[in-house]
């Protein structure tokens, strides 16, 4: 089975082509935004994945947008993540950290009353969880050029911190309606300076960030996450400019020696000419490097993507929640447990570290 064959990824040897996708689970300490001992156990349990990509981890106080999500910008956070990476490595695993800035998907509750930031002052009309519960977003403050330089610097420093924390690499979270995706989209970026308007300008902050990160860690330890056809979620809409922007971004990534491009395939999309219905097939033709496909796969559909060489590895999210031994279950054709959705984002071990391995 292709899913179970070893695979070289940058400087790593993956024992299989099964990637644990990044998933927010809201278990971090809400004071220092640090991982806890529960994180150590959770990721250790899932170390048989070919690669683990951690939950979204914010690069600065400014980047925060949800309660109980960890950071990688303080020394305390670095030291707590060291326990996680040591646990994964002691269990013969490999783990990248996903670096995250939520941009406008945030709230003043996280910023001592100050507005969250974005490319332009446009309210995404979304919801976020704050200390006061589910809360409506507000109109953000547009980043200045100086602010943008600080964002780039925060990703660079967080990448350095990730290496100190023992991670095998970093994934730049540039999808799902968060800060970089907000720059890419005409629905959230109305700037008229060098960070808006053309496809090159809309992608400028993203490539400036990659260029900054690669000065402090090897390029083959950097991954990138994109979700080109995400539509009508978090205030992001696909329009006639979307495909050309992402075509430009993916094509330009060929000039880098990054570890991988992690792509989310489209769900149900409107029947309009400017929607790419087969995201994986479309970008496989453009991107020459290592491609991880994500988006509702099971073992059979993931295997088909590998056999047809449309992807080099498959990312699975929800199956890893209730099946810490997911690769072993695939290997042995064991049944999969179902995750309890009531405990996806709740504090405590229940629904997090208490799912057992298969016992037969």
Largest beta sheet, briefly? 8 strands, parallel, barrel
Which residues form runs of ≥5 with pLDDT under 50? Answer: none
Count the beta strands: 14
What would the average pLDDT be, to the nearest integer?
97
Question: What string gives the helices and strands in order?
Answer: EEEHEHEEEEEHEHHHEHEHEHEHH
Q: Class by helix and strand content?
A: alpha/beta
Instruction: Supply Rg.
Output: 19 Å
- How far apart are the first and last residues' alpha carbons, in Å? 22 Å
Describe this structure in words.
By secondary structure, this protein is of the alpha/beta class. 29% of the residues lie in helices and 16% in strands. The chain has helices spanning 37-45, 75-90, 145-164, 179-184, 199-202, 204-213, 242-253, 279-284, 299-307, 318-322, 326-332; strands at residues 7-9, 12-14, 18-20, 51-58, 95-100, 117-118, 127-130, 133-136, 141-142, 169-173, 222-226, 260-264, 291-294, 313-316. The strands form 4 sheets. An 8-stranded parallel beta barrel has the order 3-4-5-10-11-12-13-14. Helix 1 (37-45) packs parallel to helix 2 (75-90) and helix 3 (145-164) packs parallel to helix 6 (204-213). The chain is globular.
Summarize this entry quickly.
The chain has 11 helices and 14 strands. It is an alpha/beta fold and 360 residues long.
């Amino acid at each position: 089975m292709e899913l179970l064959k070893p695979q070289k990824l940058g400087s790593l040897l993956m024992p299989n082509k099964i990637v644990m996708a990044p998933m927010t689970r809201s278990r971090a300490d809400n004071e220092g935004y640090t991982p806890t001992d529960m994180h150590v156990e959770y990721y250790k349990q899932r170390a048989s994945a070919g690669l683990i990509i951690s939950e979204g981890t914010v690069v600065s106080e400014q980047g925060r947008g949800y309660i109980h999500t960890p950071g990688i910008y303080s020394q305390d956070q670095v030291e707590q993540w060291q326990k996680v990476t040591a646990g994964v490595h002691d269990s013969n695993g490999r783990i990248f950290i996903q670096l995250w800035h939520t941009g406008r998907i945030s709230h003043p509750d996280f910023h001592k009353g100050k507005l969250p930031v974005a490319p332009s002052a446009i309210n995404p009309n979304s919801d976020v969880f704050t200390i006061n519960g589910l809360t409506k977003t507000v109109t953000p403050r547009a980043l200045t050029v100086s602010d943008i330089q600080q964002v780039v610097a925060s990703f660079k420093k967080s990448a350095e911190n990730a290496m100190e924390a023992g991670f095998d690499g970093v994934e730049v979270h540039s999808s799902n309606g968060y800060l970089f995706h907000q720059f890419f989209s005409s629905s959230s970026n109305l700037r008229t300076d060098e960070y808006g308007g053309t496809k090159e300008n809309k992608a400028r902050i993203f490539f400036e960030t990659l260029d900054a990160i690669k000065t402090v860690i090897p390029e083959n330890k950097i991954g990138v996450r994109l979700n080109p056809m995400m539509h009508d979620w978090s205030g992001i809409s696909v329009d006639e400019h979307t495909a050309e922007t992402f075509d430009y971004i993916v094509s330009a990534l060929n000039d880098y020696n990054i570890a991988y491009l992690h792509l989310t395939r489209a769900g149900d999309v409107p029947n309009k000419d400017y929607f790419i219905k087969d995201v994986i097939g479309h970008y496989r033709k453009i991107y020459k490097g290592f491609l991880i496909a994500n988006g509702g796969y099971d073992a059979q559909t993931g295997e088909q993507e590998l056999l047809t060489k449309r992807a080099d590895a498959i990312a699975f999210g929800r199956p890893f929640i209730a099946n810490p031994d997911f690769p072993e279950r695939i290997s042995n054709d064991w049944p999969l447990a179902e995750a309890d959705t009531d405990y996806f984002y709740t504090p405590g071990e229940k629904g997090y570290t208490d799912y057992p391995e298969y016992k037969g």
